[in-house]
Amino acid sequence: MRGFASDNYAGVHPEVLAALAEANTGHQPAYGDDSWTARLQDLVRTEFGAAAEGFPVFNGTGANVVALQSLLPPWGAVICAESAHIHQDEGGAPERIAHTKLLTVPTPDGKLTPELIDRQAHGVGFVHRAQPAVVEIAQVTELGTVYTPDEIRAVTEHAHALGMGVYLDGARLANAAAALGTDLRSFTADVGVDVVSFGGTKNGALGAELVVVLDPDAVASGPGGRRAEGASQAVGYLRKSSMQLASKMRFLSAQLVALLTDGLWLRSAQHANAMAARLAAGARTLDGVTLTQEPQANQVLAVLDPAVAQAVRADYAFYDWDVARHEVRWMTSWDTTEQDVDGFVAALGAALRNL
Predict the structure, then answer these.
(1) Distance CA 149, CA 186 (A)
(2) What is the C-alpha to C-alpha distance for residues 66 and 62, in angstroms, rounded to an integer?
């Protein structure tokens, strides 16, 4: 079955599989002391700047938990959009594992602004309130919208002026760069983001995500209140205690090396975005389909009669997004084809005619 439920449904890109096969020869030191992880660090610095350091982890939830912990004091809270993945779709992991409180803000488009941050950036010094310490944004947002570099700079400058760090959840960072037509650094390190994640799994990896520390001075203190000796030590402790340290790390790093070599990450994201644009264009021609957000990356949100949705799901998988509004979500991926999209639009049209 082909479908539009999630970019996680897609398989592994052949170039990633080739890298895994290449890494699967001989012996290599464990826990990140291997040649693949060393190559990965060179690529991370090329993409994100000379101060950047990457930490491979197993999954997106782990990336978010490790990254947030790296910026949080024990009493710190995280300001995020009400629609944020860390709030809606992490099973409480930030609260359970990172022991933080999420201070959520309703947003019309999934984006935070300085004004929206201020709704929760209060109570500083008040012992009865969890202290706002980190602003979390996502690129792409859960609503499929994309921050411009200037919008992110406004968030980081405001957060830093208030004494808070900034974490950018980049599960679909590649799709955002493709949508903006720019490199990864221009809307992360160059505009003041402290820590970012780079999503590999949704971009064609088997299962590998990357926490990237952009500002080593921003990460939290080490054990016992002692300042860690750089990002390697601080995030290293957190990655291990959060069960995200891979013993055979070369196999995580090899996947990320493949994505970051010769622009594979960008080519795959550009294709996924183009397929979403094709899907949106086709859906707009159908009476009975209303797009609820202007698609900017590889996600399309639409209002659709539940009976039509059920009929189309016989051939194409996709999820409900907001059941009360009859809103559904369609995701495209690196391996979505034009034939997939056109067949899906045709199935939508047929179901609408039979309603």
Answers:
(1) 7
(2) 6
31-56: per-residue pLDDT in tens? 999 999 999 999 999 999 999 999 99
| Reported confidence tier of residue 79, pLDDT bands at 50, 70, 90 | very high
Q: Is the pTM of this model over 0.85?
A: yes
Per the CB < 8 A criterion, the answer to whether 209 and 249 are in contact is no
Q: How far apart are CA 181 and CA 184, in angstroms?
A: 10
pLDDT recorded at residue 120: 98
Comparing CA positions, the residue from 7, 11, 21 lying closest to residue 255 is 21
- Please report where in the chains the tokens 């980190």 appear, as a residue: 134
Q: Do the beta carbons of residue 136 and residue 109 sit within 8 Å?
A: no
CA neighbor of 322 nearest in space, from 292, 298, 351: 292
Structure tokens, 122:
């209060």
CA separation for the pair 207, 63 (Å, rounded): 12
Torsion, CA 10, CA 175, CA 286, CA 346, rounded to 10 = -30
What's the token pair of residue 333?
A: 């991926």
Q: What is the pLDDT of residues 98-118, one digit of tens each?
A: 999 999 999 999 999 999 999
In this predicted structure, what is the pLDDT of residue 56? 98
Instruction: Check if the beta carbon of residue 4 is closer than 8 Å to that of residue 279.
Output: yes
Range list of β-strands (E), the chain: 53-57, 76-81, 101-105, 131-138, 165-169, 195-199, 209-213, 289-291, 299-304, 319-322, 327-331
User: Helices marked H in 194-337 — which ranges?
Assistant: 231-241, 250-260, 264-284, 306-312
Q: Is 254 strand, coil or helix? A: helix
Largest CA distance in the chain: 67
**Model confidence at 30: pLDDT above 80:** yes
Q: How many Å apart are CA 168 and CA 78, to the nearest integer?
A: 12
| Residues 295 and 4: beta-carbon distance below 8 Å | no
Instruction: State how far the Cα of 67 lies from the Cα of 195, in Å rounded to an integer.
Output: 7
Residue 241 DSSP one-character state = H
Distances (CA, A) of 304 to 18, 63, 325, 349, 355: 41, 34, 9, 12, 11
List, in sequence order, every beta strand (DSSP E) within 173-278. Answer: 195-199, 209-213
Structure tokens at 157: 């400058």
DSSP 3-state assignment of 340?
Answer: helix
